[in-house]
Design brief:
The chain has 477 residues and is α/β, with parallel strands linked by helices. The chain folds into 2 domains: 270 residues, Alkaline Phosphatase, subunit A (3-Layer(aba) Sandwich); 72 residues, Arylsulfatase, C-terminal domain (2-Layer Sandwich). Helices cover 27% and strands 18% of the residues. Helix 1 crosses helix 8 and helix 5 packs parallel to helix 8.
Length: 477
């Protein structure tokens, strides 16, 4: 029996909140797709920036395992080097007979030689033609003696003059070419949208003409109980007015709508070609965007939900379990193992590969789960680990005080409970869970950080997974 076709839709920097109709974001095609899909309400990125998260999606392992701990273009290779010896999602698909193609933003490793990953046809950001547009209005961030930086804007040209239109058209051409092959196909479509700068066609922007959009409730958060670096980063945006933030939000939502329009064209094509029923469609983002939360936008070291809580939906073949919502935690590293099992393919190979959550989708497993993320800083190193369980979130900040949020009572993360007496026991439980994940994946830089001046987590790692001997530089007495 022929395996199902797979279409993988990856957005860059789309926050989970835009899936909610009450957000005001215009996403009719995605909402229709969700009716046929399983929605994962507690999906979390394993990292706040592109390359680490994307490489984890491809390999099923955390960033410290695959090595791409920062973005490919921001640091020299010794600071972030992808381990090419790891098994990948696309190699597993190729081994199972799939024709694998990839169109759009790659940003996983530096070579852009996708053939060695089992991908036969591809166009990445290196060879997508530049789209020259005529800007009509824009918001520009100006800081003394820094280059001016466009935050958002509106341009004259239409939808068909966008990168998103281009990559979706190329992907559909590829599907059409291979739709009648004996082999199943897996096509990745990866858009730059809605990544900053948020620049969109006027015809999409105008759809929000009569929409009343509201900045997040946390927009005015003083963040006095948050790490100092959060406030420092907000100060970098201080030249922007509240109206600038509102225009950025409108442009960001318009950018999401631009993607939704392309998704609608794709779904129409799949249905018309009688491919829809036997196609597994996965729609997700690598990470989110703050978009006004706590007076910030874009993404960085801030641990807030707008960055880490990502959209994830899966339209199963024959629309099985259509409309179901799953509330268990699932992370970036579990997506590829899950899709491979759903498609009847071999699992990813490797000691640190995460497990499929298919048993939780089908209801065979109901045990409590947790989510985990790690961050290594963008250019500037800010070591951080994050753990979610039962609506609580613990953030280990190696550079400042930790954070603890009760998302059940405080979804906007306005109150850091790190020092609250009633939450100390729960914080220690989450910290121990963090250490277990660190030990399980041999994150030695963390688990061996027992030097005198580094012992500031609420509890230490306890017994090591492996009994390492002391370095000759650390005498044992």
């Amino acid at each position: 029996m022929k395996k199902p076709n797979i279409v993988f839709l990856i957005q860059d920097q789309m926050q989970q909140q835009v899936l909610h109709e009450q957000s005001g974001c215009i996403m009719p095609n995605l909402h229709e797709l969700m009716k046929d899909s399983v929605e994962f309400e507690q999906a979390y990125s394993c990292n706040a920036i592109c390359s680490p998260a994307r490489a984890s999606l491809m390999t099923g392992v955390l960033p410290h395992v695959h090595g791409m701990v920062d973005c490919t273009h921001t640091v020299p290779s010794y600071r972030a080097e992808y381990n090419e010896n790891l098994d990948t999602f696309t190699r597993a698909l190729r081994d199972e007979g799939y024709h694998v193609s990839y169109y759009g933003k790659w940003h996983i490793e530096r070579t852009h030689e996708l053939g060695k990953f089992g991908i036969e046809d591809y166009i990445t950001e290196r060879n997508i033609p530049g789209m020259h547009v005529t800007m009509q209005e824009r918001v520009v961030l100006k800081n003394p003696e820094y280059a001016d930086k466009v935050v958002c804007g509106v341009f004259e040209e239409g939808i068909d003059h966008t990168e998103e239109h281009y990559v979706y058209e190329k992907a559909m051409d590829d599907i059409e070419k291979h739709r009648n092959d004996d082999r199943p196909f897996c096509t990745f479509i990866s858009t730059y949208a809605p990544h900053d700068p948020y620049c969109v066609p006027r015809e999409v922007y105008d759809q929000y003409e009569n929409k009343e959009l509201c900045l997040p409730r946390s927009f005015g958060d003083g963040m006095e109980d948050k790490p100092v670096i959060y406030r420092r980063m907000r100060s970098a945006l201080s030249p922007l007015t509240e109206d600038d933030f509102k225009m950025a939000q409108r442009c960001y939502y318009s950018y999401c709508t631009l993607v939704d329009i392309q998704i609608g064209k794709l779904i129409t094509y799949l249905k018309k070609s009688q491919l829809y029923d036997n196609t597994l469609i996965v729609c997700m983002s690598d990470h989110g965007d703050l978009m006004g939360a706590h007076g910030l936008m874009m993404k960085s070291v801030e641990s807030f939900e707008e960055i880490y809580h990502i959209p994830l939906i899966m339209k199963l073949p024959k629309q099985k379990q259509a409309g179901e919502k799953k509330s268990f935690y699932v992370g970036t590293c579990e997506v590829a193992p899950t899709v491979l099992e759903l498609a009847g393919c071999r699992p990813l190979k490797g000691e640190y590969v995460n497990q499929s959550v298919v048993p939780y989708i089908t209801g065979k497993e109901t045990d409590s789960r947790f989510a985990f993320a790690e961050f290594f800083g963008q250019r500037f190193a800010y070591t951080q680990r994050i753990c979610w369980k039962n609506g609580l979130k613990y953030v280990f900040n190696a550079f400042d005080n930790d954070e603890l949020y009760d998302l059940n009572k405080d979804p906007d993360e306005l109150m850091n409970l790190n020092t609250h007496p009633a939450y100390q026991e729960k914080k220690e439980e989450l910290c121990r869970l963090m250490w277990e994940q660190i030990k399980k994946t041999d994150d030695t830089a963390m688990v061996d950080a027992e030097y005198y001046l580094m012992r500031f987590a609420p509890v230490g790692p306890g017994e090591k997974r492996k009994n390492g001997s002391y370095s000759i530089y650390n005498k044992s007495f």
